[in-house]
């Protein structure tokens, strides 16, 4: 007979998902209440307020989508984009390609610009492309874990306003660990996930939608058959191709109308609420500073071990670093050794970097000193056993210097 | 400062969601492991095996979709249906209309047949419609909570084989509490949710896909940009319009290829696994018998209170009953009294039944004697306070007779 779940203890120091904050898991063990219980709707409203602080926005339409981070990406794109609409995607890693893929499936005419992996875009390059393609939506990733790069966004908001383009940002990997200013930067729609810097499990995806995007989406409202009233008008925009990810209906579900849509994933909502609550309690600036500090310690540490770092470090996200696998070391075997003997997971990589770099994360609950030092200490042992030349104590020593400064 | 979550105690006796089994919530408090950790992939494989037993199928492709039950419905339809394909939906309640809505958004040419609320379809009526419309897919709800009806399915499988039609079933509200035989009944694709008879929270949706449906879906495989290899062929079928709910890719993610797709909602997976494990431990037949017994006690109880029951009781699901609100009683006020004073939730209703019936559920963890008797005792008090004529002790007494027999 199969027994209850009993996962092995793991310290997850890859590019995410990482260990959930135990307080988030405790919140998720609370018992359910009914979907329209006054306490439940009040909790939904409270969660909206907490995520406004996380996204740094006044957007009324701030809530969570019941799926993983890519569900929210698709919700954003399928709700904004009608077939034939032009979408521009600056691609600087795997997740830019994902935006392309999703936008294509929504029926968009997708245009891309690319920089080599390990770089980000200068704003004038993006503006030139906006001028050339005149898109309805500019869709951009903030932090792409595949390359560790963090695209500066502040100028893009201004460019989009100037050219009357909607700016969508996928902040899944960056939110909570890197500066993010939805309103100040002029973003129109942003989405995230819990499993990176927010310190929760995957499965609920925070989203915020500004007034310009709300207007576009609300024009497409079509209340579903089965619960539509005779006086429900259909908006003049084309019906959204998805029902589950239809943000026009989902906004009406979270708003005062409480439109019946999906059955709220209550346990995930409890988790999402606790992730935001903990971040707000810590303070967003303090959380970003914590990720910066532990990311800097990890960066110094891997360099102290004699490892080279991939990409333009000036534009690296705080919460992940890509480390070149030393010549002669079997990257997958070393990772397996770290997992099997030390219970520590670090990440492999995609596409052009596959087999070339490891990705090491310091995020969410694991953006802390003991996690950084234990990882560096174990990595030193594994590298030595793999035959790499490694500075004894160099990783932990360099990280400790960062912590002492 | 907002504090940690602290929901009020509620006994959820509506049509679902209901209280989660505490064992499921405990399983969900386990810490995360990495997405491709050998323990994690083994746990995914184990979960597939458990759901084969729940769905009574040998289908290799049996897993969970990371979203609520309607995410799995949409995954099924968007993956099976190409724009212009014909879909036939027998509508006998709100959730039939939902299948229509979702199929339309997938671009299907949708045909419907309808019976009055409170009835189900005779197989020959469905076969006539299949003959007349020659659909690619017959999409049918097994148990529609809006009317409490349970559509017999065994004959539909045979009809679909005869006419070379794919049979999709939404078993969200019925699975685990009513007989369900995916293979024996000739179904091609079935989906469910955790929040009804499976005793878990909403947010993960079990699915099983038979060989005929797998073939149709696999012809549409298009590995997403960003992780596609040069030797990844695109199938001859049209690209699936959703990426998140693309079952061709999701099958490759759950299968030996372990195609990178979404980030697994690990906590929901733990919950889904525990729901199935508990059902398998109890035995599916025993679980259905338990739902039958407590459903019969509740039915006898509401009748014993002098209340009339809506619909064709011979075709009622075991796990929910629709009760006519007595003349002169304000249905919403009585429900509010039950919630506020007794902590017990029963359900309101949709469409033609709104304001006419309450829906009372006995499902999952709440398909048990104390939950039935407490609900009947409290309902008696609330009815009396609302001015209805009610038989003192009649509800609990009638239920006790069922339990004694």
Rounded to an integer in angstroms, the radius of gyration calculated over CA atoms of chain A is 22 Å
Task: Count the DSSP helices of chain A.
Answer: 13
Percentage of residues in DSSP E strands of chain A: 5-15%
Largest interface: A-B, 91 and 91 residues
Poorly predicted segments of chain A: none
Description:
2 copies of one chain form a homodimer. By secondary structure, chain A is an alpha/beta fold. The first copy, chain A, is 40% helix and 13% strand. Chain A is built from 13 helices and 13 strands. Chain A has helices at 22-28, 38-55, 69-80, 94-105, 123-133, 154-162, 211-218, 247-254, 266-282, 284-304, 331-342, 369-385, 394-404, and strands spanning 11-12, 61-65, 86-91, 109-114, 137-141, 143-144, 149-150, 166-170, 189-191, 205-209, 320-324, 344-345, 357-361. The first copy, chain A, has a 7-stranded mixed beta sheet, with helices on both faces. The first copy, chain A, has a two-stranded parallel sheet with strand order 1-12. A two-stranded antiparallel ribbon of chain A has the order 6-7. In chain A, strand 6 and strand 7 form a beta hairpin. The radius of gyration of chain A is 22 Å and the shape is globular. Chain A starts with 10 loop residues before the first strand and ends with a helix.
């Amino acid at each position: 007979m199969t027994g209850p779940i009993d996962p092995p203890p793991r310290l997850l120091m890859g590019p995410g998902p990482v260990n959930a904050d135990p307080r988030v898991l405790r919140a998720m063990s609370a018992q359910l209440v009914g979907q329209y219980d006054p306490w439940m709707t009040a909790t939904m409203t409270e969660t909206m307020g907490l995520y406004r602080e996380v996204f740094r926005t006044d957007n009324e339409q701030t809530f969570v989508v019941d799926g993983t981070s890519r569900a929210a990406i698709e919700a954003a794109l399928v709700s904004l984009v009608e077939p034939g609409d032009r979408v521009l995607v600056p691609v600087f890693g795997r997740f830019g390609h994902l935006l392309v893929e999703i936008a294509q499936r929504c029926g968009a005419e997708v245009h891309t610009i690319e920089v080599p992996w390990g770089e980000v875009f200068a704003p004038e390059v993006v503006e030139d492309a906006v001028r050339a393609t005149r898109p309805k939506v500019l869709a951009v990733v903030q932090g792409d874990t595949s390359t560790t790069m963090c695209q500066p966004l502040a100028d893009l908001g201004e460019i989009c306003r100037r050219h009357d383009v909607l700016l969508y940002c996928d902040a899944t990997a960056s939110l909570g660990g890197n500066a993010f200013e939805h309103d100040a930067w002029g973003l129109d729609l942003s989405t995230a996930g819990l499993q990176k810097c927010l310190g929760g499990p995957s499965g609920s995806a925070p989203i915020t939608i500004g007034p310009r995007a709300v207007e576009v989406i609300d024009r497409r409202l079509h209340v579903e058959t089965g619960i539509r009233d005779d006086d429900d008008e259909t908006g003049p925009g084309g019906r959204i191709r998805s029902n589950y990810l239809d943000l026009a209906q989902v906004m009406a579900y979270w708003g005062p109308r409480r439109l019946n849509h999906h059955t709220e994933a209550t346990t995930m909502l409890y988790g999402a609420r606790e992730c935001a609550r903990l971040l707000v309690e810590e303070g967003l600036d303090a959380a970003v500073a914590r990720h910066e500090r532990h990311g800097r310690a990890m960066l110094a540490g891997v360099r102290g071990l004699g490892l080279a770092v991939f990409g333009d470090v000036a534009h690296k996200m705080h919460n992940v670093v890509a480390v070149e696998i030393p010549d002669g070391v079997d990257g997958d075997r070393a990772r397996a050794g770290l997992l099997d003997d030390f219970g520590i997971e670090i990440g492999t990589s995609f596409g052009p970097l596959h087999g070339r770099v490891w990705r090491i994360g310091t995020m969410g609950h694991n953006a802390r000193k003991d996690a950084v030092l234990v990882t560096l200490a174990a990595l030193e042992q594994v590298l030595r056993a793999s035959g790499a030349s490694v500075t004894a104590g160099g990783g932990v020593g360099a990280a400790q210097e960062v912590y002492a400064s």
